[in-house]
Specification:
The complex is a heterodimer of chains A (about 220) and B (about 375). Chain A is mainly β and about 220 residues long. The relative contact order of chain A is 0.18. Chain A has a 10-stranded antiparallel β-barrel with strand order 3-4-5-6-7-8-9-10-11-12. Chain A has strands at about 1-5, 15, 35-55, 55-75, 75-85, 95-105, 110-120, 130-145, 150-160, 170-180, 185-200, 205-225. Chain B has about 375 residues and is of the alpha+beta class. Chain B folds into 3 domains: about 30-135; about 135-235 and about 350-360, Immunoglobulin-like (Sandwich), CATH 2.60.40; about 250-350, no CATH class. Chain B has 10 helices and 10 strands. Chain B has helices at about 1-30, 35-50, 50-65, 70-85, 95-105, 120-135, 265-280, 285-290, 295-315, 320-350; strands spanning about 135-140, 145-150, 155-170, 180-195, 195-200, 200, 205-215, 225-235, 235-240, 355-360. In chain B, the strands form 2 sheets. In chain B, strands 1, 2, 3, 4, 7, 8 and 10 form a 7-stranded antiparallel β-sheet that branches. Chain B has a two-stranded antiparallel ribbon with strand order 5-6. Classes of the chains: A mainly beta (about 220), B alpha+beta (about 375). At the A-B interface, strand 1, strand 2, strand 3, strand 4 and strand 9 of A face strand 4, strand 5, strand 6, strand 9 and helix 7 of B.
Chain lengths: ~220, ~375
């Protein structure tokens, strides 16, 4: 049997520095990630009051508006479509649909569009009173860093348009909301407040009305980060 | 009277003559081996002239020189002493002295064969007796051996005249701990196998080493120690190293800065807008005067503002893809550099060469 015992290593081994990359190569333009475009398809509900002044009598009813909203936009241009209908107690039912074009980036966009507004009662569901309107306004959507939250403020004027020019005096809408996109799934929720003012006219008689309430919605969102 | 004076003069001058002779001999020794060889030749000549006592005396003078004589010279001197102690003339034979001298040679020279000019049948039989009764050790191997990598090894063969155990020790001549100790259990012959690396590090540094083989007779426990010298060429083994972990201070930011306080402005803006829409934006006419503010507007405005500000402070920043990619590339390059360094070190270990020049002339 043999037994090998190495009592002591007296040899020398030294260490020299190897070639190691000194650091990452900084990119020329280290921009934060952002989507080139956005597609948003949502359903929403506005829970609030509908008031109108008819023959010096103010009527206010509580109810809700339900609708769908589709938005497709790139960084410089976008298009949206909205359709809604609402019921407020015994007051005439309300429906509207519009299409808009957005110009310039979301942080500040100019929007122009056209829509049709209709009022009808249960007594004459087949012959609603319809108003064609032109829409012009501004919209601002700001992302709060990478949190997934965005604020949205928009306002627009309604102007008489189309064949019902003489039935529309003016109108405006305003909305302030926040949109939160979920981190993993492409879904978002929206909470805000919306006010719509519309004044119809028939000859010298004007019928102002307004809808205002809390807007809650949500849906699919692709991009838009 | 005059003759006595001359003798007295010679006696008086004798210390000086001896001193001069000794000085001359020492000078010759220092200059080379020829004076020793000359002494050995003279001892051999004296033996041939049947002047055994002079041959013995001259051979002892050679041995007296000590460590400066070579093994061959020492063996030759011992052979002359043995031959002079056991000549054919029975009257001059000192058998015990001859046998002891021959045993002394055989201990480290198992293949001893007397030169023709010194031996005769009786002395040959005495040599055989010495070999038969003495425990001797003989070490052999290649004088220059190259050991490559951790698996490579040098070999030294050891043979004993009787079964015995053997131990090999290699240690620096200049002192220090043994570099290698190896042993062989009871056997008549075996092989020491010497690695030159331990734990993938060199065992040796370049320099002179003593190679000591000790044999112990298994039955009589007679011990023989043979000492050789070896020169080791062991270059320094250089390893490449890399940082143990990536230098995080060099990494590029992978996210933008937190939104933080910047969220206060949009928060107030969206909250204020909601509040204004609920309280200040009204239709004209009676609606403007008769309708009050919507109390829900203040609440929802507060919710919007607060949510925005909280989101701003909870924000971790937006990812920066270009920086993420650059950091990833840096990490991969770093990993690759480590893999390359490890591969290079493995190659250096595997190809590391230690050369042993072993002088197998016993000291």
């Amino acid at each position: 049997m043999r037994n090998l015992l190495i009592a002591l290593a007296v040899g020398a081994a030294v260490t020299v520095r190897a070639q190691v990359p000194t650091g990452p190569i900084a990119p020329a333009s280290p921009k934060a990630a952002s989507s080139r475009g956005e597609l948003r398809v949502s359903g929403f509900m506005i829970s609030g009051d509908h008031s109108f002044d008819f023959a010096n009598s103010v009527s206010t009813e509580t109810g809700s508006i339900k609708g769908v909203d589709v938005l497709l936009r790139s960084k410089a241009i976008g298009i949206s479509f909205r359709s809604l209908s609402g019921t407020f107690g015994t007051q005439p039912h309300l429906a509207s649909a519009d299409a808009r074009i957005y110009l310039f980036p979301p942080v500040f966009s100019i929007m122009v569009g056209a829509g049709r507004r209709a009022l009808w009662s249960d007594l004459n569901p087949d012959t609603p009173t319809q108003f064609d309107i032109g829409i012009a306004g501004v919209s601002s959507t700001m992302a709060i860093g990478g949190s997934g939250l965005r604020t949205n403020i928009s306002g627009a004027f309604y102007a008489p348009a189309g064949q019902s020019k003489d039935k529309v005096k003016s109108g405006l809408e305003g909305e302030a909301s926040i949109l939160y996109r979920l981190p993993v799934v492409p879904l978002f929720v929206q909470v805000g407040y919306r006010t719509e003012i519309f004044t119809a006219k028939a000859g010298t008689r004007e019928t102002p009305e307004e809808v205002r309430g809390v807007r809650v919605g949500g849906g699919l969102q692709l991009g838009g980060r | 009277m005059r003759g006595r004076r001359n003798v007295a003069t010679l006696i008086g001058a004798l210390p000086l003559v001896l001193a001069l002779s000794a000085a001359s001999l020492r000078a010759q020794v220092l200059q080379g081996t020829s004076p020793i060889d000359d002494l050995l030749k003279r001892a051999g000549d004296a033996f041939n002239d049947l002047n055994y006592s002079r041959a013995d005396s001259l051979a002892h003078q050679v041995l007296a020189i000590g460590a400066r004589i070579t093994t061959a010279q020492r063996t030759r001197a011992l052979l002359v002493i043995a031959a002079a102690s056991y000549p054919e003339e029975q009257g001059a034979q000192k058998r015990a002295v001859a046998l002891a001298t021959l045993k002394q040679i055989v201990r480290t020279n198992l293949a001893l064969k007397l030169p023709q000019e010194l031996t005769w049948a009786g002395l040959d039989s005495l040599v055989e007796e010495a070999k038969r009764t003495t425990f001797g050790v003989e070490v052999s191997g290649e004088t220059e051996q190259v050991v490559v990598g951790p698996q490579g090894s040098a070999r030294l063969h050891v043979r004993g005249s009787k079964p015995g155990s053997y131990q090999l020790t290699i240690m620096p001549v200049g002192g220090g701990s043994a570099a290698i100790v190896d042993s062989l259990a009871t056997t008549t012959s075996g092989e020491f196998t010497l690695g030159a690396m331990r734990s993938e590090r060199p065992i040796f540094t370049s320099g002179e080493y003593a190679v000591i083989v000790t044999g112990v007779d298994a039955s009589s426990h007679d011990t023989v120690t043979v000492r050789y010298t070896a020169r080791v060429d062991a270059p320094v083994l250089e390893f490449t190293s890399t940082a143990a972990k990536i230098d995080s201070s060099r990494l590029l930011p992978e996210r933008t800065k937190k939104y933080g306080v910047k969220s206060i402005f949009p928060g107030i803006l969206v909250g204020g807008a909601a509040f204004a829409l609920a309280s200040s934006v009204k239709a004209q006419g009676n609606l403007q005067t008769k309708l009050g503010s919507d109390s829900k507007g203040a609440a929802i405005g507060g919710v919007l503002a607060l949510s925005t500000i909280v989101a701003g402070f909870a924000d971790r920043g937006r990812p920066i893809p270009a920086n993420i990619a650059a950091n990833k590339a840096y990490g991969e390059a770093f990993k690759k550099s480590i893999v390359n360094a490890q591969a290079e070190n493995r190659r250096r270990i595997a190809e590391y060469r230690t050369t042993l020049h072993i002088d197998l002339e016993a000291r």
